Amino acid sequence: MKLLITGGCGFIGSAVVRLAVAEGHEVVNLDALTYAACEENVASVAAHPAYTFEHADIRDRAALDRIFAAHGPDAVMHLAAESHVDRSIDGPGAFVDTNVTGTFTLLQAARAWWEGQGRPASFRFHHISTDEVFGSLGPEDPPFTEASPYDPRSPYSASKAGSDHLVRAWGHTFGLPVVLSNCSNNYGPYQFPEKLLPLFINNIKHLKPLPVYGKGINVRDWLYVEDHARAIDDILHRGRVGETYNIGGHNEYRNIDLIRLLCQLMDKKLDRPAGTSEQLITYVTDRAGHDMRYAIDATKLRDELGWMPSLKFEEGLARTIDWYLENDAWLESVTSGAYQAYYDRMYN
Ligand code: NAD
Ligand code: TYD
Questions:
Q1: Alpha helices in 206-337 (DSSP H)
Q2: Strand, coil or helix: what is 144?
Q3: Are strands 244-247 and 178-183 parallel, antiparallel or unpaired?
């Protein structure tokens, strides 16, 4: 298949790109190269004959029309987004622009191209979304299913919810063959160090404080990024048109428990006395509107498509720490320049 993947220079998008090339697909990676992008993330496939890069913005209709005409994709896998909750509190406008207006513009371009091709039933528009659209769970609530009502509570999750609704509407009203997936928190290599795990790994490395929001009792459900990419690939090939699939690791951790585990592993890996990293834990003012708990019920994906997470969490976490420690140059390059200003604004 020829796949048009948006956001392919980001964290999850680059894992999807690397897997798609390995699976023998032709890949067109469309990315605006925002602060969150890193071309190094796709360096391993950049010279492959099946790989093409298009530097473009999903809000630019003329660029999208040109790209659809030039490449004639069989499917769109839409991952481009503004993705960090704290930034959405700091500056929500970019989230509405890219996640809502950008998705709208991409849908219109995809629809125009698909209609021009005679509306092939085999075409797919796969929209990659988040569990955060379902809101926040109490401690005893069952995990989110595909039938959970939408209740987004941050500018990020509200903008992603808006984009999910647009995609479903384009499926329902115009017949565009859409499929959606909503995934829990991802972790793994190439994640920009504004998100919890790479930020804390980098801070531990440099013996900097670990800013734990509130009491550290918020719960997230963690999935290794390559397992997410594999789920997306399964859904693309075998998912049913018009359906939504929840993707999650069945792997809930309270932030503070995860951070303590990270600290213990990092002390060992860095050959530091036990307890060194934990001393860096610093409780800071809570995030505004901080969702208490996310958890995903991925039964539908397992029953319909046979997907299961492949990695145990401890193994995935150890592999992730090793990757960041072995890829010093990557970490240094993404934390230079504008990153420092962001860090100072958020944390100092
Ligand atoms: P990321 O921030 O690492 O990468 C986003 C990519 O999109 C970057 O390469 C960026 O340059 C590109 N981009 C941003 N705005 C663009 C625009 N206007 N036009 C073209 N490209 C643009 O994000 P991520 O963590 O890899 O997330 C990818 C997708 O998966 C997002 O849609 C996100 O909502 C969703 N998701 C993320 C998680 C998670 O834990 N990170 C979990 C579930 C779902
Ligand atoms: P994050 O990685 O930003 O993902 P999300 O908010 O989308 O789930 O944060 C994961 C959890 O870690 C979340 O409960 C907020 C918390 N957190 C901190 O305590 N300190 C931090 O510096 C960051 C970035 C996150």
A1: 225-238, 255-269, 299-305, 313-326, 328-334
A2: strand
A3: parallel
CA distances from 181 to 64, 184, 272 (A): 23, 10, 41
> Could you tell me the domains of the chain?
2-186+224-250+290-311 (3.40.50.720)
Atom nearest to 194 CA in ligand 2: 24
Instruction: Give alpha helix (H) positions in the chain.
Output: 11-22, 61-71, 85-90, 93-95, 103-116, 155-174, 196-205, 225-238, 255-269, 299-305, 313-326, 328-334, 338-347
DSSP code at position 240: P
Query: 80: Cβ below 6 Å to ligand 1?
Result: yes
In the annotation, is 150 catalytic?
no
Alpha-carbon distance of 274 to 264, in angstroms, equals 7
Give every CB contact of residue 109 below 8 A, 6+ residues apart in sequence.
61, 64, 65, 68
The residue from 156, 187, 245, 253 that is catalytic is 156
Q: Is the CB of 98 under 6 A from ligand 1?
A: yes
Model pLDDT for residues 285-307, shown as the tens digit of each residue: 999 999 999 999 999 999 999 99
| Gap between the Cα atoms of 159 and 154, Å rounded | 8
Cβ count near 80 (within 10 Å): 29
Q: Is the pTM value of this prediction over 0.85?
A: yes
Q: What is the pLDDT of residues 255-283, one digit of tens each?
A: 999 999 999 999 999 999 999 999 999 99
State the sign of the Cα–Cα–Cα–Cα dihedral 307, 27, 99, 253.
Answer: positive
Distance 332 CA to ligand 2 centre (A): 21
Count of C-beta atoms within a 10 Å radius of residue 314: 10
If you write DSSP's letter for every residue of 185-217 in order, what string do you get?
EEESTT--TTSHHHHHHHHHHTT--EEEETTS-
Contact (CB, 8 A) for 262 and 317:
yes
Output 146-153 pairs: Cβ under 8 A, ≥24 positions apart: 146/182, 146/243, 146/244, 146/245, 146/246, 146/300, 153/289, 153/291
Q: How far is the C-alpha of 66 from the C-alpha of 277, rounded, in Å?
A: 51
